[in-house]
Amino acid sequence: MARISEVIFPRVTGLVITCDSNGKPDIATFSFLMPVSFEPKYVAFSVSPRRKTFENLKEVEEFVLAMPSREMLDKVWGCGTRSGRDVDKFSLLGLEKEKAKVVKPPLLKNIPVQLECKIEFIKEFGDHYLVVGRVLEEHITKLDFQPLLHYSKNVFFIPTEKVIVE
C-alpha cells in the first residue's frame, strides 16, 4: 500500500518554529500544511505527537510558519531529519533568529514569507494531530520565490514553469 504522501503530491514545504515554556526554540520541516481561510487568515499543519514540535505546541500554543526558498534545501532537509531533543538545529544549520512581533517563537532572517500564529484548534486524527493557527502577523519580503515542494522522504520538486489559464 502506498504512503499517503506518495499519492497526494507535491506538497508545499514549510518550516514550523516553536518554543517550549522556557523560550527554547525548535524548528522542523513540514509538508502536511495548508491555508484554511482568507479572512481572517488561518493555516493548518499536521504533526506527529512523537515530535518535539508537538511537545512545544502543548506548552506554548504559538508558532511561526516560515516558507523557505529553493536555496534553503539543505537547511530544510536538516530541520526535518534531526530532532530538537538532540541538537540545536539553529546553530547546527547556521539559521539566524530574530524576535517575532507577537508570538514567543522567533522568526528567521532571510526568509521570503513568515507567519506568526496562535493555535485555535488542535485535534488528533489517526497518527497525527491537526493544528490550526490564526495568523496574527505577516512578514513578507518576497512573494515571487521558488518554493520547495515535497514528494516523500528525501525527494523534493522545484517549480520551474508558471502556467496561466485564460
The first-level CATH class name: Mainly Beta
The proportion of strand residues reads 35-45%
> CATH homologous superfamily, by name?
Electron Transport, Fmn-binding Protein, Chain A
At CATH level 3, the topology is Pnp Oxidase, Chain A
- CATH architecture type: Roll
Could you explain the architecture of this structure?
With 166 residues, the chain is α+β, with helices and mostly antiparallel strands. The chain has one domain: Electron Transport, Fmn-binding Protein, Chain A (Pnp Oxidase, Chain A), CATH 2.30.110. It has 4 helices and 12 strands. The chain has helices spanning 4-7, 52-59, 73-81, 89-93; strands at 11-12, 14-19, 25-30, 33-37, 42-47, 62-67, 97-98, 107-108, 113-125, 128-140, 149-152, 155-157. The strands form 3 sheets. Strands 3-2-6-9-10-5-4 form a 7-stranded antiparallel sheet. It has a 3-stranded antiparallel sheet with strand order 1-11-12, with no helix packed on it. The longest helix has 9 residues, at 73-81. The radius of gyration is 15 Å and the shape is globular. The termini are far apart. The model has no long low-confidence stretch (mean pLDDT 96).
Keywords for this entry:
alpha+beta, 4 helices, 166 residues, Pnp Oxidase, Chain A, 7-stranded antiparallel beta sheet, 12 strands, 3-stranded antiparallel beta sheet
